[in-house]
Amino acid sequence: MLPLPRFDFADPTDLAELVRLAGEPGARLVSGGTDLLPSMKHRLFAPTRLVSTMRVPELRQVEPLPEGGLSLGAAVTLREVAAMPVVQRDYPALAKAARTVATPTIQAMGTIGGNVMLDTRCRYYNQPAGWRVALGGCLKCEGPVCHVAPKGKGCYAAHSADTVPVMMLLDVSVVFATAHGERHVPIRELYGVDGRTWLQVPGGSVLVRLEVPPPGAPIAYRKLRARGAIDYPQLLTAVQHIHDTWRCVVSAVGPAPLRLEATSPPELVEAAMAEVQPLTTHLASPAWRKKLVRVELARAMAELGIG
Amino acid sequence: MRQPEPVPSPIGAYARKIDGRERIAGRAQFVADLTVPRMAHAKFVRSPHPHARIVAIHLDAALALPGVFGACIGEELPKRYGVIPVAQDETALALGKVRYIGEPVVCIAAVDEETAHRACAAVRVDYEVLPPVLTIEDALDASKPVIHDYARKPSNVLRRVHQAYGNVDAGFAAAEVVIEEEYVYPGSTHAALESHAALAQVEPDGKLTLWSSTQNPHYVHRDVARVLGLREQDVRLIKPAVGAGYGGKCDPFCTDICSAYLARKLGRPVRIVLEREEVFYAHRGRHPTRLWLKMGFSAAGDITAIDFKAWADGGAYASYGVVTSYYLGVFMTLPYRVENYRFESHRLYTNKPPCGPKRGHGAIQPRFALEAHLDKAAARLGLDPAELRRRNCIEPNTETCNGLRVTSVGIRECIDAVVKASGYETRRGTLGPGRGLGLAASAYMCGALHPVYQNEMPHSAVQVKIDRSGEVVVSAGTADIGQGSNHMLAGLVAAELGLHPEDIRVIEGDTSLTPVDLGSYSSRVTFMAGNAALAGVRPLRAKIVEAVAAKLGCAPEEVRFGLAGHPERGDGPRVGTETSDVSWVDAVWLAEERFGPLIHAGGYTPPKIGSRFRRQSVGPSPAYSFTAQVAEVAVDEETGEVRVEKVWVAHDCGRVLNLAIVEGQIEGCVYMGVGEAVSEEQAYDKGLIRAPSLLEYKVPTIHECPEIVVFPVESHDPEGPLGAKEAGEGPQLSTVPAIANAIHDATGLWLNDPPFTPEKVLRALDRRRRSGGR
After folding, report:
1. Is residue B306, in this structure, part of any structural domain at all?
2. CATH number of the domain encompassing residue B559
């Protein structure tokens, strides 16, 4: 088996202690570990200490928000999210998205906060260390060039968090704890345009909870993947229709999910076709994935009864 | 235990495998479960280049790390090995040159895997990079560098085979329709769940014990001893539980040789368990193959001639490639009558991980081309594809034009069963756009007539020992890799003695305790080891019969086994007549008193079947299995996704020994075929494997697996054990072409290059839409 590198492990039960440990040099947060540990086995990074979020009560809490809506602790598992009656009733698209993550066993370990903080992915990045040596290194990890865009300067590793497109349409607020207090970030502002610096939060911030506003218009959610289980997304689409506005989020095509709005379904599709530029971050070809943007959006809108 | 009923014959029953429960419960011991005191863990430094000369290896930094015990490099193990004696070109660690990305260069043993891993990262190897040979075209290009440049006749062609039978040109001249096309079949790998692993230990007497995850204990035993310069008798090879092979564990591997060598060099046991990425480098999977096929047909649909060429991209080492070069062509004369046949194959070297035997070895690629060709011919001739196949089917007890002696043949029954069950004749062409049915048929072997190294000894031997305790111990050198050979042996012996299969203890795959069996390859085990088991038990059964008859004063032919026990005594099965009997244990006592120890070893040597063709030494088998299947697919014309929804598969396995195992093997074949048809491909970019993980190498999940309906067909082979033939490989041959033909029915597209991935199918659909098609 591919051995893990050596590291220390801490599992604090107190939020302040969690924030303190997370801020120490070489520390990295771990929740379910379903994405982090394989990446450590691949030597993508080598934290000296993993700090678990799983025993801190605030991160395991689920409660209604005072002004309506739902507060979801970051360390609530994807399986728990999908199984909650309140989520199934008020946010069915979120329940559906949680159920599309990998496999039931991984949903039982992986958390909703972990999914929000999921590392960007690329066919050249998520590979064993020796493979990357033969490749000549990957820009996100150790190399001088990006193999997706050798002439570019950026990293294009793709955002691959299955639950995030739905949460962007829900206008979820992401609450971090830092040494200087709480910080609220709208989820749509959380992600940046480079695959190396895709998270727009200072180091040492600890995701505590997700504040989901009261339910609004229905959301259709689709995940395109090679197989009916296990796989990361080839393309994610979430669509919502509110009054005169059609909104969508298209993801798994770049470091940040793309959020688009239009005043009619055809305009929304054309806007997406103009904006979305899949690259060779996946084994499936960019040309095919581009064609599928139109198909998936049309199918999502059909699920909503529009388009 | 009470035994109020006679023991039912296990033959044909749907029975739980005797060793199934331990696997389901996680109790079976695989190599990675074995630990011995002072054991070291070893890992490999691997080549980052597809083709390079090794200039220097710097081990100092690695050896200086705390916890590192030692290392070895290619120069310490220079003897080239390989299962096929005429093509021994491999060393466990690269010697002078690396020939593919991922080739092992150094092996380092340390206190644990993590330390060994760090030590490997600390090794520096200086390379002089050479231009790589990466494609079939490269390998045929004489101006490219030669990968095995030490050979006497330097070339990247490992083997060219050319054979011709009948008069091919006259056959084409007589044809009404001639179809000629190219096909490209992709490489794929086995993806067995257990990775390759070995544990070696020097015993107190100085002899070596090697536990290996292998399909072929005998061949690994021979090669490990030879490479290490040991006497074979001083090496004991044990095959513990193995988590499947599918052909991927037929060769000796770096794990076997390096663990054995380092155990001796370091004076401590060494275990090596490959990582998943490394299994993709060990490979031995399906050869990517370019195929050119030309067939002639009469107006009525009779095959008048076949002309066929194949170029197989074999990777950096020979493995079983010489055999592949023959298997590509030999089975094209089955199951359809053909008098005029010519074929030429090339097995080539390229700078990629070595290809080798994968389920349906060498026969999968040409079968795809041939069966797709038959549907094209049927369309051209206006015939029903099933009818075209039926009219060409060979009859039992025939000899093919290339000299294959064929005994039992159940191909018509197979075609009839799946055509009827699927409604093929009435539903095909009527399911509307995006949905279709496809038919294909095939034939495969039941073991090779000739061993891989020249000898006249039995191919299988099975020893049966019946103890005065009543225990029956069957010892065989076979390798159960999950396919059920242990149950097969137990079932046959139990049936002869009137016992339950669970009553038989099977000891297998231990070169010191069990007699030689050549191994789990070429679908040989049921046929050969099964016959050996019957030959082992029947003389003992005769002794028991004689002793019991003498005791009871009856005629020997009156003696029956497996009679009901007496409920009031609560004993087990009994031996005797309707009127008087003795317990099983008493029967054994009587026989041992009369004849001495009840131990007998039976062997199986294939019949000497003379061929008209001297060169036809690879391909002939004592018997052939036959398969037909119909696939129903749905094609999403917007996304290109192909869903295989249902497969009806009929397989002539001669005789069903255990229905559960037969069904399981056939289902496994179809499942693997579905993967090769829609999603699996071992592909490379500049020699670097694209998907070295089970995340990105797309074996089907349960979501992609169709409903599979199995129809066993029993043709009762005259030489098979109780009439049985193979069921573990043949059924895969016709899966991919059945799916391709179904895609044609659904879309009108002929796709000649699996896997039929969504993007490939959508591209073909778009091309047709642009050219004004439907």
Report:
1. no
2. 3.30.365.10
Interchain pair A2, B692: CB under 8 A = no
CB contact under 8 A, B700 and A227: yes
Q: Quote the tokens at residue A129.
A: 């260390």
pTM for this entry: 0.97
- Same domain, yes or no: B502 and B537: yes
Better-predicted residue by pLDDT, B309 or A143: B309
Compute the radius of gyration of chain A from its Cα atoms.
19
Q: What one-character-per-residue DSSP string does A22-73 give?
A: HTSTTEEEESS-TTHHHHHHTTS---SEEEE-TT-GGGG-EEE-TTSSEEEE
User: Do B462 and B418 sit in the same domain of this protein?
Assistant: no
Q: Report which secondary-structure segment, H or E, holds A174.
A: strand A173-178
Q: Which domain holds residue B509?
A: 20-27+457-604
pLDDT of B1:
38
B208 and B120 in one domain?
Answer: yes
Q: Are residues B636 and B716 in the same domain?
A: yes
**Distance, CA of B728 to CA of B247 (rounded, Å):** 11
Residues A80-108 as b/e (b if ≥16 CB within 10 A, e otherwise) read bbbebeebeebbebbbbbbbbbbeeebbe
Q: Please report whether residue B43 resides in a domain.
A: yes
pLDDT at B542: 98
Tell me the pLDDT tens digit for each residue of A217-258. 999 999 999 999 999 999 999 999 999 999 999 999 999 999
**Is the same domain home to B410 and B486?**
no
* Structural tokens at position B443: 């034939």
Q: What angle do CA B40, B41, B43 make, to 5 degrees?
A: 140
Low-confidence ranges of chain B (pLDDT < 70): 1-4, 567-570, 611-616, 773-774
**In CATH, what number does A59-212 get?**
3.30.465.10
CB-CB contact of B334 with B733 (8 Å): no
CATH architecture of A219-304: 2-Layer Sandwich (3.30)
Residue from A99, A101, A290, A292 to probe the interface with B (highest B Cβ count within 10 Å): A292
pLDDT, residue B566, reads 75
* B291 assigned to some structural domain: no
Q: Which tokens in the block code for residue B499?
A: 């016992």
Nearest residue in chain A measured CA to CA from B643: A227
Q: How far apart are CA B742 and CA B748, in angstroms?
A: 9
- Asked whether the beta carbons of residue B276 and residue A2 sit closer than 8 angstroms, the reply is yes
Residues B257 and B391 in one domain: no
- At A306 the pLDDT is 67
How many angstroms separate the CA atoms of B360 and B185, rounded? Answer: 14
How many separate domains does chain B show?
3
Q: Which of B262, B282, B302 is the last residue of a domain?
A: B282
Q: Which of A160, A224, A231, A283 to mutate: most B Cβ within 10 Å?
A: A283
Rg (CA), chain B: 27
The CATH 3.30.465.10 domain(s) of chain A lie at 59-212
Chain B nearest-CA residue for A42: B277
Of B701, B704, B762, the CB nearest to A288: B762
What per-residue confidence (pLDDT) applies to A202? 82
Q: Which residues of A touch B (CB under 8 A)?
A: 1-6, 123, 126-131, 133-135, 226-232, 283-285, 287-288, 291-292, 295
Bigger pLDDT: A271 or B615?
A271
Condensed to tens digits (0 to 9), the pLDDT of residues A8-23 reads: 999 999 999 999 999 9
Is the pLDDT at A153 greater than 80, yes or no?
Answer: yes
ipTM of model: 0.96
State residue B770's pLDDT score. Answer: 92
Instruction: Answer whether residue B663 is part of any domain.
Output: yes
Measured between alpha carbons, how far is residue B32 from residues B36, B194, B272, B484 in Å? Answer: 11, 9, 8, 21
> Where does a domain end: B232, B260, B282?
B282
Asked if B673 and B711 count as a contact pair (C-beta separation under 8 A), the reply is no
Whether residue B225 sits in one domain with residue B78:
yes
Question: Do B397 and B520 belong to one domain?
Answer: no
